Amino acid sequence: MECDMAPSARRRAFTLIELLVVIAIVAILMGIMLPSLAKARKGAKRATCFNNLATLGRAAGSYNVEFSDKIPAYSWRRNMSYQSRYPDLNNAPTDSRAMMDQCIYILRERAGRTDLPRMTDRIPTRHYSHLVLNDFLAQRLPETGMACPEDDVLLEWQRDPVDFSPRPPSTRPYQDIWPYSSSYQIVPAAWSPDARKGSVTTYTQVEYDHNLMWVGSGRLGDRRMADVIFPSQKVLYFDYFDRHSGRKPMFYGYAQAVSSLLFFDGSVSMHRSSETNRGFLPDSPQSAGWTNYSYAPNILGFEPPTLSGRPTDPVIGYYRWTRGGLRGIDVNGREINTSRWR
Known about the structure:
globular; single chain; 4-stranded antiparallel β-sheet; alpha+beta; two-stranded antiparallel ribbon
């Protein structure tokens, strides 16, 4: 009896050891492969982000051809009627109000949001400049290509743009249009004058809020590709946050941020902000200084926290406020000289 049982017990013990060895090998392989898979997924999202920006570049190129070299921008003007379907969106008293009317018109037409009322004290150029191209391409909104695949907040809003949550603290009806915003922002010089000229001012950065701008007195829109002197070195659109280089997203204005950038020649690349030119003060172009302001994510509540953990951090304008505007250089070259601009 003992002789018959011993071989069977030994076989069972040997099989168990083999199983444990296999499990250990699988665990080791999983430990090796999982970081590689995560890296591959992150690389795929970065490639999708690049493609989103490249698509914006191609659309901007088509817009240039269709509209006599104009850079895509809101084009409605004060005291004008552009359509008859929504009488409340005609005859705005100012150009900035007319731009917002055009924004709401696009959302009513392309998103079916006929419930949206006229909005009077916002400018759409910061978070909604892309809607001009969406309308040009006759796209249904919200358009997923306007969101970086790492922009979890915007993608969640896009899933239910009417009843989305969490809602930003801004008052209604302005908070209702956040799902139609974009991860990517156009540079202000694409729709406003490069710099102050005499008594005519341009749009500049609000020092205490990274999302706000001081309103200028210069004419808006009508910027043309011919105004761009260095198209391969001048940013057109940029991801507002570095979402790909680290574990957590980071506002583009930090020196160590590495954001995705679309240039006027249609190329897309990533650049560390500290390796780009610092920019200037658009209303004081002759100054050697640059735009300094505060990143204050607690104002809206859904943006990534500051790197310091404090309510605000100091940041720099960089390519958002390029020295010389459209005539300037952001990467791979020195800033142009604006010391004689008045």
